[in-house]
Design goal:
The chain has 551 residues and is of the alpha/beta class. Helices cover 32% and strands 26% of the residues.
């Protein structure tokens, strides 16, 4: 029986599977799934979810590297009206326990190599009914309760019958946040799937579909003209850029996702995969990815074996600085369009589009002002273009329902202004005379390193837990690869001593590696005001002076 077609990822993808069943949906190494296979396996996996006692609205934590199983697990959740929850695979036990507990996850789907971390916290997760394991089982896997192999979770299962997918089903993405613990950002499937599908159609050169029924018409046009996308999410699917731009958007217009194994980044492996699979688009995170890509393209030319990337039409980025210099190098190597989006898990704000024709106009951190975006001064009035005034960035383009189980922070971030609801995450900007937005950065002390948000107090707490460390402040210093480098400015106890190498090892054993400082600056006294408040400005200057003196 044909179900009504609403704006909902599951509804859209089911209609695509019916329209082009033999076309490729997923490519992951030797594993190639057609749209029919993608849909069938997700329906079978959804049956397994129900057999574990999960109901529509239940949360499912996905703790995995990039793989086809990640996207299957998510699609199965969409099909059954459940909510997938992204888990940062760099998290250690304490961070894992918090996120899984805070999200109320009842099922955890995990990569087998992470079993050891889950074993140590499983008793802290009373709501979790079962674990589904991706990959080869390990000795630690046997210590987890109620483990199901991913293959067994869908194989020979009866497919879950299709249901009417409600536009108010919740889609949620956990963000590292700028004020402490991770927070679940909630969207309604309806508005979220409609926006991403519309953007994908527009990027492909078509008009945004007015109704979900029109999506198939657009897909038919793309197929006839050989424009169906083949996308690589070069960055992690656990983050918004990789999932939203690299996977959800191309899938929602009938494209193919080519999975890049991101356990360790290799520009050579990424470009070889793009060449082999005739990839048309790629999702990256700014210079952290683009710089090694341009370096590898140059090395390939020096080897007289340039990559054959004639199929590549677009590279999209979001989440971290993407410099005009790096964009120019990419455009010199490939005749593509580069889309640089300014956004966060809490919403989308603006974007810039450059190609070979306008590359000289590209500016770092400069974006085109959307009609739904404002920059407001402290008094609530709008910043005047060209005035040099700065203000808080506000967007009504894509506004979440709020943070999961956190009404206080929701009210502080998602505000109604003149009857319109806006996302106001705390980014400061100014508007140039030509109407472009210059992003200045987060007003808080949050550090953005390679697209990861890092809260200084968490790192400071880990540093000060070392028996020889007396005080510490953590700041972000400019870094050509990651945007910012985590830097610890610390003092040791009187008559104390600490081995720098041992200190680094200690921190890395207590924090995810991306949160561990890249630079350690020991000082006589950490700068603080007389009332004990941190003086981050002075700490940053001390750090810059110390790091610069080493070069």
């Amino acid at each position: 029986m044909t179900q009504p077609l609403n704006w909902h990822f599951a509804a859209l993808w089911e209609s695509i599977a019916d329209f082009k069943p033999s076309a490729e949906a997923l490519v992951d190494g030797d594993q190639r799934l057609t749209w029919r296979e993608f849909d069938d396996r997700a329906a079978q996996l959804a049956s397994c979810y129900q057999q574990q006692g999960l109901q529509p609205g239940s949360k499912i934590a996905i703790y995995s590297f990039n793989c086809a199983e990640y996207l299957l697990a998510q699609y199965a959740a969409f099909k059954s009206g459940m909510c997938p929850v992204n888990v940062n695979y760099r998290y250690l036990q304490n961070e894992l326990s918090y996120l899984i507990t805070n999200s109320d996850a009842e099922l955890v789907i995990y990569q087998s190599s992470f079993a050891d971390r889950l074993v140590t916290i499983q008793d802290e997760l009373p709501k979790v009914r079962a674990f589904i394991e991706i990959g080869e089982s390990t000795a630690q896997s046997a210590e987890l309760r109620d483990v199901i192999a991913f293959q067994d979770a869908w194989h020979n299962q009866p497919p879950l019958p299709r249901r009417t997918h409600e536009a108010n089903d919740i889609y949620m993405i956990y963000t590292g946040g700028t004020t402490g613990n991770p927070k679940g950002v909630m969207y309604e499937q309806g508005i979220f799937s409609q926006l991403l599908t519309s953007l994908a159609m527009q990027y492909a050169g078509l008009e945004a579909p007015e109704r979900p029924e029109n999506v198939i018409d657009g897909i038919a046009s793309l197929d006839v003209n050989g424009l169906s996308p083949r996308s690589i999410p070069a960055c992690p699917l656990m983050h918004g850029t990789g999932m939203w731009i690299g996977a959800l958007m191309p899938l929602s217009i009938g494209g193919t996702v080519v999975v890049y194994d991101n356990r360790s980044f290799s520009a050579e492996a990424l470009l070889s995969l793009a060449e082999r699979e005739h990839v048309t688009e790629m999702a990256i995170v700014g210079d952290a990815f683009a710089t090694p890509i341009t370096d590898e393209l140059a090395r390939a030319n020096e080897r007289n074996r340039p990559y054959q990337l004639d199929a590549m039409r677009r590279i999209s980025s979001s989440g971290v600085m993407f410099s005009s210099e790096t964009k120019a190098k990419l455009l010199q190597a490939m005749d593509i369009t580069i889309i640089d989006s300014m956004g966060a898990s809490e919403g989308s704000f603006a974007s810039s589009v450059v190609n070979r024709a306008n590359v000289n106009d590209a500016k770092t951190a400069s974006f085109q002002l959307s009609p739904l975006t404002k920059v407001l001064k402290d008094d609530g009035t709008e910043v005047t273009p060209g005035s040099g005034e700065t203000g808080l960035l506000c967007s009504a383009l894509l506004v979440p329902l709020g943070y999961y189980k956190d009404p206080v922070k929701s009210d502080a971030t998602f505000k109604t202004i003149d009857g319109v609801r806006y996302t106001v995450p705390g980014d400061y900007a100014r508007i140039e005379a030509d109407g472009s937005i210059i992003l200045l950065g987060r007003g808080s002390t949050c550090i953005n390193s390679g697209g990861e948000k890092i809260y200084p107090e968490e790192v400071e707490e880990a540093m000060k837990s070392h028996p020889e460390v007396y005080d510490c402040l953590v700041v972000g210093l400019p870094d050509p690869k990651f945007g910012q480098a985590v830097t610890a400015v610390y003092s040791i106890r009187p008559n104390g001593a600490t081995d720098p190498a041992a200190l680094k090892d200690y921190i890395r054993s207590n924090l995810a590696d991306y949160k561990a400082p890249k630079h350690y600056v020991q000082v006589d006294a950490v700068p603080r005001a007389v009332n004990g408040k941190a003086d981050y400005k002075t700490a940053k200057q001390m750090a810059e002076d110390a790091v610069n003196s080493q070069h």
